[in-house]
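Hey forum,

I'm writing up a methods section and want to include a predicted complex as supplementary material. The small molecule is copper (II) ion. I've pasted the protein sequence and the SMILES. Can someone with a working setup run it? I'll credit the forum in the acknowledgements.
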Amino acid sequence: MAFALAFAGCAHASARVTVMNAPDLPAIPEVASTGGIATLELESRLDDQGRPAFFWQGRETAPTIRVRPGDEIHVRYRNDLPQTCGFGMVSDSNLHFHGLAVAPSAPGDDVLATTVRPGKSFDYVVRIDRDQPPGLYWYHPHPHGLTNWEIGNGMAGAIVVEGIADAVPETAGLRERVIILRDVPHDPSLAAALAPDGTRGPIAANFANRDQDDQYAAPCGIETTSQTTINGVPAATLGIRPGERQVWRILNASGHRHFDLQIPGVPLQLIARDGIPLGYYPGAQRSEQRWHVLIPPGGRAEIVVTGPQHPQMLYSLCYDTGPHGDENPGAILGELDDDHGDTAAGRIAAPAGLVGGLRYRSALPRPDATRTVRLSEDARRFYLNGVAYRPGQAPMFTVRSGTTEAWTIENVSAEVHVFHLHQVHFVVLSTNGVANRDPHWIDVADVPPAAGRHGHVRPSRIRVLVDFRDPAVRGTFPFHCHMADHEDNGMMATVRVI
Ligand SMILES: [Cu+2]
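Reply by user p_vandermeer:
Happy to help. Structure tokens for the complex are below, copy them as they are.
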């Protein structure tokens, strides 16, 4: 890190010299809807390194699916993974369409009953609501017990719902980048470090060691087992001219790592979180200036970046996941420099009268019910309200469609967890009793570690308002920790909306 910073300093003196020589940010191929339908065939199989991976048109890649509100996504998904994966489970797969307010039923966004077994295929049809806000969503596998093996090895792709310029007119005409951040194990078998049989393996040892160490010295640790990537490469050059503004749509598709993005000296104009423009929240600004942007696993941030006068690094800052948490050390993701060749995805289209998300824009209704979800863990398993999830388990809650509910998410463990519900968005109202000063509609939220040690645990709590008002969202779907290894090991439950 120090070495690279020293070079960045030199670059200031000799304007616009490439310091990293990293390749241009790879562009991700795209499938756009035509006639209201985006159609693709996607396949999962082991790549030449033995990792489970998405393939499209014979290439190891997951295209960005670009749609408009009211469109459909048709995916023929073929599972060509070996019959069993490295730790003895059948290599099942399926697809989740994260963040979209769509029905939780087959042949759409159903991860509970729809399993694509090895050697089989399934035809997904996802109907996107006319009211779907414009922004960045994503698709990834969600077979309980194997989610970390599949997502953690890189199986994820982006979905863009068009229309951001209707919500943020100043983005019209700007060049656009889709950026996918991952954290891929050096050894493909390590993504299965938490085998779903309850044997927590290396993490259990970590848990035990850290428990004896009250004053742990390196809160972010030193990651030695994995490599962060940006659009599939360890570091990239992001071409941007001095003063040019670009829209970056950034997805954290890692299995369980946070990214806290910073470009020294460059303000980041945050315009959307988790697919919903900031300005949709009643009374909120269309954009907020940030000096760093934290994205939990599963989260998305859409930002406007202004090209610096001199090359600058793109970093992820050290993030402390808590005394029992995993290592999230700082990382260099790339460098902003003059264009060497245009690898942007295209330009943001002019406003087109796509006025979505109406229900998100009105004053928050009073909650119709309250619930409590307690997050806990021991050396073997992870729990919601004391229960480690088993497939087929009865729903934990039954909710009336058309309502909102206030949920208290309480963390009694000494590491952060990432709360996520399928199909719906929510607002964080408060954290540990302190009102949220810049609330937004989101679909993943950090629940901070509990305070106190050795039997004197003070739980951390976030209070959220969950939106069950969309009439399309009826049925049973999961909520869980989006650290995929935690979910695989039990930190999941289901809710039934009637
Ligand atoms: Cu967790």
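Some notes you might quote in the supplement: The chain has a mean pLDDT of 88. The first helix runs from residue 2 to 13.
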